[in-house]
Amino acid sequence: MSPKPPFLKVTRSALQRAWVDRLDAEGARRAEAIADIHGLPNTLARILAGRGAEVTNTLDFLEPRLKSAMPDPLVMLDAERAIARLAEAIVSREPIAIFGDYDVDGACSAALLAGYLRHFGLRPFIHIPDRLTEGYGPNSEAIRGLKAEGARLLVCVDCGTSGHAPLAEAKALGMDVIVLDHHQAPVDLPDVAALVNPNRQDDLSGLGHLCAAGVVFLVLAGLNRALREQGLAAPDLLSQLDVVALATVADVVPLTGLNRAYVAQGLKVMKNRERIGLAALADVSRLDSAPEAWHLGYLLGPRINAGGRIGDAALGARLLLSDNPEEARRIAETLDGLNRERQAVEEAMLLEAEAQALLALGLAEEDREVLVVAGEGWHPGIVGIIAGRLKERFRRPAFAIAAYEGALTGSGRSIVGVDLGGAVRASVEAGIALKGGGHLMAAGVTLPPGGVVAFADFLEERLALSVRIARAEDALSIDAALSAESLTPDFVTGIARAGPFGSGNPEPVFALPSHRVAEVMELRGGHLKANLVSTGGTRIEAMAFRAAGKPLGDALLAARGEMVHAAGTASLDQWGGRVKVSFRLVDLARL
Hints:
The protein is an alpha/beta fold and 591 residues long. It has helices at residues 25-38, 42-49, 58-62, 66-69, 79-91, 104-119, 140-148, 164-172, 212-229, 241-250, 258-271, 276-284, 293-310, 315-321, 325-361, 383-394, 420-429, 452-472, 489-495, 551-558; strands spanning 19-21, 96-100, 125-127, 153-157, 176-180, 194-196, 371-376, 398-404, 407-413, 435-438, 442-447, 476-478, 480-481, 510-522, 528-533, 539-544, 563-575, 578-590. A five-stranded parallel β-sheet has the order 3-2-4-5-6, with helices on both faces. A five-stranded mixed β-sheet has the order 7-8-9-11-10, with helices on both faces. α10 (241-250) packs across α11. The radius of gyration is 24 Å and the shape is globular. The mean pLDDT is 94.
């Protein structure tokens, strides 16, 4: 296949990328057919074709529904065993313990399962481990504590796939164990009553793109069916899709197939503000409009994560389960404060991490394909954010390692086409890392003392070739060329029909050819605001987030008064009853 010609002849942008049309010739023909047969605007049809829609499934793509997207839950290996054991526990009213992860997916999964059990009058114990003192996944001390509380069934959500020793202890204590997880799995699995994980190597369900909450929801759907067959009134699961949507977006799993339906329907549930905790969180986040997918990833998710990063890890699950408005408000305000504290700590850590990365890369940015940075005293709860920032800036996988109280723990973020979770699992098997795992785009690791260099070298040797290939193919895909005149609220509302947008279903990127940079202003937080003016005289406000002092910001400042090709995404900005279009600048090319 011949390479695509550069879009607008841009071969080297401010971010050193070529621009290409997202659609090849066959995709363009498919877009024309979608527009003609379904009577859709050409730009919307191009967006749909660029995200895999076909003429035959366009209407389903525009209206993702659970009815058509959901498989039979029993397609997942061990789901039948998990459902049978949970049904037995509910009917016999057994004491149940839920062990979750300390991130958004873990909190949502725990709240989803606990809320379901509460419907039947059960009051499950919930344990969310402290990131600093307990680390990720089940641990023996916590399991002994849950056993002492009387738990007979232990359900691990968003963790447990690699928890051999602690889950063996749970079994020795007389507890049955169910694991509902989605992380990459080794061949050798813990000996438990049921381990439902579409990413276990012997699972053929094809549902490996689900987050843990998505797996839990499917299992509960099967459980509903089983309990109805026994004459029990099952709860309304559709009303729980708000937390499934939140987990799906926050865990950055692909918004394809069932996940798109989860998020599309979950946003509708969230709009009704019936979950007291999420309503309180939206209020402290100053979210006063109908929620969109990006709100979950950038406003709500980080606040729930803040509890697990630098505060009480159980706050998120408690908030999502709260039925007391005052309690919910207090927890939401606490999480909001922790998030501000997290931002301050992150800023200091990021400066040091970027300095290390620049030193490792050199001026040519070619010395290392995988970035691994480490800092004494760095907060272990924030290293994942640092890794994500480095990945965004340097366009390559990045790991940030915290040397904290004698331990080396870190998180990594990857780029499309590079399996970071698999590399970390391989490092454990090679004896380089003590423990670790994850999925394609994100992973966590614990290293032995002095193990940072060996880990960095291992990742470099294993991943360098795939990173080089991925970076060579890392052109900016453009969905359409428009002018500022075209970016109206009605236009933005129309293209939103192809959403929800996120990982795997990327937000449309539009090129604004030959627009003049009229003004550029630096705002607090390192953001830049500019006005772009079309040849017809129409202005559009453009924001370049966290761009000050970075290549995009430098290029924007240097282009004041000049004509540029600008590339970015469009959204609606609602404030004080007014609605306007905001253009988020992602790249530019000077003419």
